[in-house]
Amino acid sequence: MIGIKQDGYLRKKKLAKNTVSSLVFRITTIICGFIVPRLILNSYGSEINGLINSIMQFLGIIAFLELGVGAVVQSSLYKPLSVNDNDGVSSIVVSGQKFFSKIAGILLVYVILLILFYNIIAKQSFGFIFTGTLILVISISSFAQYYFGIISSLLLIADQRGYVSYNIQTLTLVLNTLFCYILIRLGASIHIVKLITSIIYAIRPAFLAIYIKKNYKINWKIKYYEEPIKQKWNGVSQHIASVVLDSTDSIVLTIFDGLKAVSVYSIYNIIVSGIKQLILATTSGIQSVVGELWAKQELDELRGFFGWIEWIIHTGTIFIFSITAIVILPFIKLYTYGVRDINYIQPIFAVLIIMANAGHCLRLPYNIMILAGGHYKQTQKCYITAAIINVTISIVTVKIFGLIGVAIGTLVAMLYQTIWMAIYDSKNLICWPIKYFIKQVAVDIIIIVCSFVFASYVKIKVNGWFEWVVYAIIITTIEVPIVIAINTMFYNKYIKYLMSKIIDLFKKR
Question: How far apart are the first and last CA of the chain?
């Protein structure tokens, strides 16, 4: 079967709310992500933009010390939530909060060390006081997240109420963009702008804490005599790989190529990462549903749901990233118009970074199944190997190819991880035949080739935003029938199901 049977109406309703709210949040992130960097580029230059992105990536390394406990906490909550075990939920939440409070303390030490040594390890021309104070103000929101916010978000997502967290994040994003625009237009220093950003983001955990207090009976004084988070340390390798894959590129560029290269990388990353987050948004409620089905061992339902999810994620990813690959360079040219301190037009890098981020999305169904099934310890080898591949190739090739080198490292790591996870799921979790994965990848490749062949016949000179919008609409219009036609040949069942749902939706309206 294609869909999933629901325990009444509630599960389906929660999935829809999570998907919509997450999608709104990701779209808002993309829009705001274009506005603020452009303001910074125009007002402060490429090196300041690169400095900010570099600092944020270095601060992101502190997530390394989370050691994957967040994902394990979320997986551990599925069972007690499904049977309304308040004591079980409380034990897991309290244990998780103790761990994240320790991480917050380590973060303080890390920030001090980063302030002291950043100027030594980074290729940049700013003074110690300038970079040190900027690191300090940017780190405020990170501290608030680890000390107050993470455990609340994990509980809400595990209970299929992630929409609460997403709505709060959307609100703070809009507020931050508005304040950044006003402050930059008034001529405020970059330190003031980032300080206000951190203060706004620090408000998020307070709202989450209020919601948790009103809607959950968490016993914060509960005593437990054995660790309630059974696989507390088995998510280590998965988490290390995630942090390395997300942070390696900017850090390697900071050390070996300088902040202007980081700025170029960050502009492309705004686009491709934004698209990636958009796709992730559509899957935000899926892991909790898969986790519930797995916990209840409703395997027939799970297999039907997994097949549908694999197809929809692959099809959506290829559709969106194919369009992105075709229209990205004209967009970058317009977006960076007037910024002349470094060349932002990098065609080969653009293709590679798009492929790497598409790879991250294509692995989603297999990664979701591994996390929902709690197979952390069993899959450590894959995650560690991917991290090593990424770091090694990036460091070796950045000296030769610069930006292109770090993109190669990420791409190779993603390809390895996607193939490994698909094989693992096939053999160890839901026994999903590997021939289905091979077929899906073959269809993906056919769509990509056809898209580029037909797009090559479109001859539009893009000199402004209006022309770019027209160009993007034409490319999208070409892409839609290609995707539908090819999938009708190979996945007619899914196309019929999808069309029936769309028709039902219009009938209701």
Answer: 26
